[in-house]
Design goal:
With about 180 residues, this protein is an alpha/beta fold. It is built from four helices and eleven strands. The chain has a single domain, classed as Restriction endonuclease-like alpha-beta roll domain (Restriction endonuclease-like alpha-beta roll fold). The strands form two sheets. The protein has a six-stranded mixed beta sheet with strand order 3-4-5-6-7-11, with helices on both faces. Strands 2-1-8-9-10 form a five-stranded mixed beta sheet, with helices on one face.
Length: about 180
Amino acid sequence: MALPSTILRFNLEVADVDRSTYETLELRVARHPSEGDHFLVTRVIAAALHIGDGAELSRAGLCDPDDPPVLAKDLTGRITHWIDIGSPSPDRLHKAAKKADNVFVYTYRRPEPLVESIRKAGIYRAQDLQLFSLDQGFLDTLAGSLGRTNTWALVRTEGELFVTAGETSASCPLCLHPIEG
């Protein structure tokens, strides 16, 4: 018998100064039994950073390998933002670039191997893909504060992320890694 998902609640105050987006949102996140802390934290941050684009967590969660963990759709149901987490395969990113207007990857691993595999794979519209990385220490700090109910204040300004999670604060640069060149 498979283990059930755990539901975590996030109350987020998002101030994305770089994109002039200011929102308050409540997320109910179904944590898959195989989902690690870094993946979960990165998934919540990616959803928060794209809330102004209409992003939401995938309905199937991590159970459907054909859907991204976070996505945004227009009124016709077409995917406008495909937001992946970790180190997706070049084949997955190729498919994403054909299905969505914009493809973003937020990685919590070393970005260099992923950048190199994307460059070699000949992915459709690879130059338009946006790959961001988050610092391990930053993610460790936030992962250590996780509970069933989480209250976060997230600020992005001048390419830097600041998160306050209860009594815990952490910051790191949100590094964009160019694919071409």
